[in-house]
Amino acid sequence: MQYLEGRKYVVQGIFLLVALIFLTRLFFMQVLDGTYKLAADKNTLQRLVQIPYRGLIYDRKNQLLVQNTPVYDLLVVPREVKQLDSARFCELLQIPLEDLRASLLAAKKYSRIKPSPIVQNLTTPDLAAILDKLGDFSGFRIQARMARAYRTENLAHALGYVGAITPAFLEKPKYAKYQPGENVGISGLEAYYESTLMGRRGVQYKMVNVRGIEKGKFRGGEFDTLSVAGQDLHLSIDAELQAYGEKLLAGRRGSIVAIDPRTGEILAFVSAPHYDPNLLTGKGSGNRYMALLNNPDRPLFDRPLMATYPPGSVFKLVNELVALQLHVVTPGTGFECNQKLVHCTHRHEYPANVSLAIKNSCNPYFYQVLRAAVVRGQSPNKFEDARLGLGQWQKMVKSFGLGEKLGVDMSQEKRGLIPSPDFYDKLRGYHHWNFKTVYSLSIGQGEIGITGLQMANVLATIANRGWYYTPHFVRGIGAGGPLPQYRERHYTAVDTTLFKYIIPGMEMVVDGNGGTGNLASLSQYGITMAGKTGTVQNPHGYDHATFAAFAPVNDPKIAIAVFIENSGFGGTSAAPAAGLMIEKYLRGKVAPSRKRWEDWVTYGDFTKHLHSM
């Protein structure tokens, strides 16, 4: 019996020990969750998330573009709110009563024991005005944090912006560690590099009394973790060139993209109309965002990435290279300027070879180039022959980075369209189309669509004689370089030895007698340029103007593509804009004598002829 009695006490002791361990763990779980009240001195444990210092953003010359500035958020813990005098509270904060009610309801839905934002982005003067009286309202506290401040009025579409995280974001696994009231990159580079810029959160556990006064660290800070600052981004953007490009296109709709062909680094990324990135920061940014969103000029629309246009005559360069690869033409092949095939925009010399055809942008010549590439007698059935030829053509064209996302370090990039045989099967029916259905592709018209970024990349590819690096904005992360995918060369399906045959004609476009892109010429400064003009047919109004080029020809440092909507001929509007941008980048300045062209690009009426200039 004594043995059994002893076992009973042992068993009871074990149960007591297990219960003690369980209660101890429960105690600390409650403590770490910030919900356990210490009855002896009425102190409360607070779990404070330490938001790390967000990484800064610099341009290629280490000019600071984006920094952090201190702001304050007013938070509420719903369970701690006691007998709130709503009218007095709203008068103190100068907010509508309905806004307060909505915020409190949202906070309760999120959590009754965790803090949620009531008012965000308070400045230091805002805080000073309310701090003394805030102690009269239980359950509310102030949290300091760093907000974004932009030291530039430019580059808004690339930089993007930071905003309060939304409930929709919080439901995504990648944002599981975020809390209501925290900021997150919403668009642009701020969003794409969010994890890099954000860093790693820290946590502190503090004891506070019922009035929110700190009473010291919990257990000497043994449960605290330090935050780790985000890494800085060093962009390839030239801030001066960017500002100049936005000035040139002020009041226009269009885009300018400039790339360093040697690296794939984006030098300028102009989307017009543009807006000041500071509009989407600070108190009232929500209202300013809605104003931009409802603006009929669509300043929030990222044209270089999202607007797809037919490329016009610039695309003739790609068609010529594909035909050379297929051995259906040679550099010396000539075709008659036969207006019965397709209209040619102006009278010119006989296109006896590829250089003269490119210089004069002869439409009938390139009609016959594409016909030779597509209609190759691979099937006795003309419809099947066109299907086979177009399929091979499409595959080769897509190797230039067209019809697919390039993979730039930015979200919302559009693929564009390089139509396939299946596309026309769905549009016209199987074996119900042939070359005459798709001939407009020969001059960059019809169903084809590319972005400004893609067009600039095509010129970078030609500048490199057959390869490109994926275009990217970030040339360095912290003390390191860009992401590995931006160091890989991509080769087209065209032999690199063939690119040299189209470049002389591109030089003649700019510097040849009667070239369609003479207004871009920088020969007076000893700068050689290879380019191509384009005029994009627009059924809804005036045609769009394009021009794409690279310079210097034998040592390319910049490739550029310009789209200006409703501006007529590419040679009279887009070409001078590109010439000015290249001059600004390569010379570091624009000659005073060229101000007339700056004024022309910014203010000129492109629908009129240039004879009066």
Polypeptide structure, described:
- There is one protein chain.
- With 613 residues, this protein is α+β, with helices and mostly antiparallel strands.
- It has three domains: 2-32; 46-235, Alpha-Beta Complex (Penicillin-binding protein 2a (Domain 2)), CATH 3.90.1310; 239-271 and 303-603, 3-Layer(aba) Sandwich (Beta-lactamase), CATH 3.40.710.10.
- It is 34% helix and 18% strand.
- It has 21 helices and 19 strands.
- It has helices at 2-32, 86-93, 97-110, 124-134, 156-159, 167-170, 188-192, 194-198, 239-248, 285-294, 303-306, 316-325, 354-360, 363-374, 382-398, 421-428, 435-438, 452-463, 503-511, 574-587, 595-603, and strands at residues 37-38, 43-50, 57-58, 64-76, 116-122, 140-150, 162-164, 183-185, 202-208, 214-217, 233-235, 254-260, 265-272, 467-469, 474-477, 489-491, 530-536, 544-551, 558-564.
- Strands 3, 4, 5, 6, 11 and 15 form a six-stranded mixed beta sheet that branches. The protein has a five-stranded antiparallel beta sheet with strand order 13-12-19-18-17. It has a four-stranded antiparallel beta sheet with strand order 1-2-9-10, with no helix packed on it.
- Strand 17 (530-536) and strand 18 (544-551) form a beta hairpin.
- Helix 9 (239-248) runs antiparallel to helix 20 (574-587), helix 12 runs parallel beside helix 14 and helix 13 packs parallel to helix 19.
- The N and C termini lie far apart (119 Å).
- Mean pLDDT is 87; it is low at 1-5, 7-11 and 18-41.
